[in-house]
């Protein structure tokens, strides 16, 4: 009797989940790490200059959504098909705490920053995320235990006889044309107000809960 009552309910609910236009609906395993999300809409929004994190964040916000990531391989494969060969902005950015550590401890060293241990290991808390409805474990596991920080640099400011180095390092997660994750600059270089990225990011990945119209 209970089964008979429950089954039609589940089918009705699942059948009626509605995503915004051009978003894909994914079923997810609800856990504490994804805000117990059972179904989620993830969409690729084409937009120019998504190199800049605040702009990418704004485009998702305009769609009443947030920056997002795939939660598993199946979602990654579907998102790769959806975005085609575009390089796009996705959720995830170094925590301010780890940026501070990078600037303080690592800038004088060889060109690969080694996040071996502790908080700033990519598997731990190097990254912070906008989206509470996606478990970032799959993303974190796709990173090696170390992340090279090529193309870091500084703008030198001369004050009297001394030089102050104003550091810049890539710190935002992007998805490249081939579907791999990369860390990129995501603010304008204050020296010339230009973007500092290797590629043009021409879209953004956004996520939102489906609607369930009655
Ligand atoms: C958690 O999920 C519920 C819907 O299941 C949603 O209403 C709520 O906004 C989510 N929490 C956050 C912080 O996004
Ligand atoms: C992406 O695909 C389009 C059309 O399929 C092509 O014109 C363009 O050159 C490709 N871009 C890259 C970076 O491969």
UniProtKB/TrEMBL annotation:
SUPFAM superfamilies: C-type lectin-like. It comes from the Eukaryota. Keywords: Signal. InterPro entries: CTDL_fold. The keyword Signal applies. Residues 1-17 form the signal peptide. This is C-type lectin domain-containing protein.
């Amino acid at each position: 009797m209970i089964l008979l009552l429950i089954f039609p309910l589940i089918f009705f609910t699942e059948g009626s989940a509605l995503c915004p236009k051009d978003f894909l609906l994914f079923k997810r395993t609800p856990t504490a790490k994804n805000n117990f999300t059972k179904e989620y809409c993830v969409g690729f929004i084409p937009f120019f200059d998504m190199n800049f994190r605040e702009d990418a964040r704004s485009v998702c916000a305009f769609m009443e959504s947030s920056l997002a990531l795939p939660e598993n391989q199946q979602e990654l494969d579907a998102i790769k098909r959806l975005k085609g060969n575009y390089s796009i902005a996705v959720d995830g950015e170094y925590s301010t705490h780890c940026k501070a550590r990078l600037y303080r401890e690592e800038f004088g060293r060889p060109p690969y920053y080694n996040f071996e241990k502790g908080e700033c290991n990519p598997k731990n808390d190097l990254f912070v995320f906008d989206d509470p409805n996606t478990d970032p474990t799959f993303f974190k596991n796709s990173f090696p235990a170390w992340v090279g920080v090529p193309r870091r640099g500084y703008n030198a400011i001369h004050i009297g006889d001394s030089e102050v180095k104003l550091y810049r390092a890539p710190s935002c997660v992007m998805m490249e044309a081939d579907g791999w994750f990369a860390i990129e600059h995501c603010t304008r270089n204050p020296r010339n107000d230009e973007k500092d990225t290797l590629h043009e990011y021409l879209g953004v990945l956004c996520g939102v809960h489906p609607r369930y119209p009655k």
